[in-house]
Amino acid sequence: MKTILSFIAVCFLTLSVNAQEFKFDSELINYGKITQGSEGKRVFKFTNVGDAPLIISDIKSTCGCTVPSKPEKPIMPGEKGQIEVSYDTKRLGGFSKAITIYSNAKQERMMLKIKGYITKAGTEEKKEEKEEDQKS
């Protein structure tokens, strides 16, 4: 009985020692409605809430219109990090893209998402002017 309990304790300790984890402030960035050609860079912020250095080995996006960049150095326990994402805002219409993060965390693969709607330059200003004219 003592041997079984010792074995279970060792297994539990082995699993908890390598428990790197990270928690994002948000796993979705909603660009909302933005104008064609406007700034497409956004930042996902996270904290290493594990007990070992977090190493992000790779980041992939679902298309070439979304370019993510990862931290090059390990994020130590308790430290904050960020992942920058640039979306090509020259494309009109709605978008929803996924960014996959590969790391040494307990959950080796994590998915982040961006979404929004790109309107033609000048469209929003005309709409606002029309609404103001109707109020007058």
Automatic annotation (TrEMBL):
Residues making up the signal peptide according to the UniProt record? 1-19
State the source organism's domain of life: Bacteria
Q: Does the keyword Signal apply?
A: yes
- Alphabetic keyword roster: Signal
Q: Does the keyword GTP-binding apply?
A: no
Which PANTHER family is this protein grouped with?
Answer: LIPOPROTEIN-RELATED, SIGNAL PEPTIDE PROTEIN
Write the protein's name.
Uncharacterized protein DUF1573
Recorded source organism is: Tenacibaculum skagerrakense
